[in-house]
Amino acid sequence: MTLHFHEVNFDGLVGPSHHYAGLSSGNMASTSSRGEVSNPREAALQGLDKMLALAERGLLQAVLPPHHRPDFALLRRLGFAGSDQQVLLAAQLEEPALLCAACSASAMWAANTATVSPSPDTLDARVHFTPANLNAKLHRSQEHPSSTRALQLIFGDTRHFVIHPALPDSGALGDEGAANHMRFARSHGEPGVECFVFGRSALGQGQGQGFDGPRRFQARQTLEASRAVARKHTLAPDRTVFIRQNPAAIDAGVFHNDVIAVSHLNLLFYHEDAFWDESEGLAALQQACAGAGFDLQVVRVSRAEISLQDLVESYLFNSQLLELPAGGMLLLVPAQCRENPRVSAYLDKLLRSGGPIREVAVFDLRQSMRNGGGPACLRLRVVLNDEQMAAVRGRVLIDKSMHAVLTDWVRHHYRERLHVQDLSDPTWVTEVDAALRELESVLDLPGLYTHRN
Ligand code: SUG
259 in ligand 1 pocket by Cβ < 6 Å? Predict the structure, then answer.
């Protein structure tokens, strides 16, 4: 029997605590939205509408659940004591930023949930996942225990899936997951080339030597973390490439590689400022692809066409590159790309060029975008064959009816206004509890929230 392989996009369902706390320095949108009033309901609906649109175009779309918030265990570990309500009030009064961190809905950015290597790339022909430790930012470092749990529930069939523990929690092993990882292949089911893009070498080894790091902002992903994930996933060394991010781009607000480059199958769509040494990086990638039996195709955007500032403002490269069932590639971009005249003109030119990208679809994801999360941040790509698809647990695939169920659930439970001041409101905490209890049965993932982190 021939097994067919598909790319399944698992999007993070935006949680009811979505708010603007300015927690991510180096992420311009997060910093500039600090203190604004958010609309969690609209955020979740915008995400669900994107999911439905892709499902209706014949693509496989699934959902990853939000995490339980507030994270009381984090606050208690930081010395807040008493009842849950006393903990929240003390945190609000003494350390409001810690309360925001403990309430963050940042798990919505599923590209940071894990690094995923599909079975054609791994020695034991299973799909390997390493949840990202996300230890560059406090509010994100609390995600991996819940992410691991969700992945274990959904991909619990050990005949097909391996869920590794996250890397040790050390800055030397900062790991941001799929946002700094790209996979190239002729087709999803053939052995591919996995490319890890790192920002710094914590231990000063190998390629890490002799480089100036970013000066303004921290590079989140380390070479040591990328190498460890590649080893754990048993990737073939000749089909694994490590490329360094350009520190100047990190300083301009490119905090993940997926803000400046995106790939699909053998196509790389990227900006000339993405990598530290563009020609060396591209050569290594081309060589690995040639060794795997296919040619790398590139669409390169120059600085003269789009500046770093324009790409950070528009999130042009945080788009999703998707292969349409009828053939040709679709570029799914955020609305900001059509609002920036230079980026919009570039997209028109791209469509006229006769290249592989045939269509541009525009989505309003403003709620997430104001925290620096575009279309590509919201999704985790998982390449699965038919048997692996059948082994996925829970009701996580999105079709019209599941979209309707989740939309109703959001409308019923989510607020339309949330401000950092609201995070210690006991009524809101009770609302979130009730919402998540119900979601556990909607998604048919028993035990998802039983174990609180
Ligand atoms: O890690 N924003 C996220 C955005 C992540 C985007 N993901 C990818 N590029 N794949 C981050 O910086 C902001 C939260 C706040 O400020 O409240 C935040 O965490």
Answer: yes
Q: Ligand 1 atom 11: the closest Cα is on which residue?
A: 24
Asked if residue 22 has its Cβ within 6 Å of ligand 1, the reply is yes
* Residue 208: band (very low, low, confident or very high) from pLDDT cuts 50, 70, 90: very low
pLDDT in tens, 55-106: 999 999 999 999 999 999 999 999 999 999 999 999 999 999 999 999 999 9
Which residue has a Cα nearest atom 7 of ligand 1?
A: 377
> Could you read off the pLDDT of 340-389 as tens digits, one per residue?
999 999 999 999 999 999 999 999 999 999 999 999 999 999 999 999 99
Which residues are known catalytic residues? 176, 256, 377
CA of 106 to the centre of ligand 1 (A): 6
Question: For the chain, what percent of residues have pLDDT higher than 70?
Answer: 98
Distance 373 CA to ligand 1 centre (A): 6
Ligand 1: atom nearest CA of 134 is: 1
Q: Secondary structure of the chain in the HEC alphabet?
A: CCCCEEEEEEEECCCCCCCCCCCCCCCHHHHHHCCCCECHHHHHHHHHHHHHHHHHCCCEEEEECCCCCCCHHHHHHCCCCCCHHHHHHHHHHHCHHHHHHHHCCHHHCHHHCEEEECHHHECCCCEEEEECCCCCCHHHHCHHHHHHHHHHHHCCCCCCEEECCCCCCCHHHCCCHHHHEEEECCCCCCCCEEEEEECECCCCCHHHCCCCCCCCCCCCCEHHHHHHHHHHCCECHHHEEEEEECHHHHHCCCCCHHHCEEEECCEEEEECCCECCHHHHHHHHHHHHHHCCCCCEEEEECCCCCCHHHHHHHCCCCCEEEECCCCCEEEEEECHHHHCHHHHHHHHHHHHCCCCEEEEEEECCHHHHCCCCCCCCCEEEEEEEHHHHHHCCCCCECCHHHHHHHHHHHHHHCCCCECHHHHHCHHHHHHHHHHHHHHHHHCCCCCCCCCCC
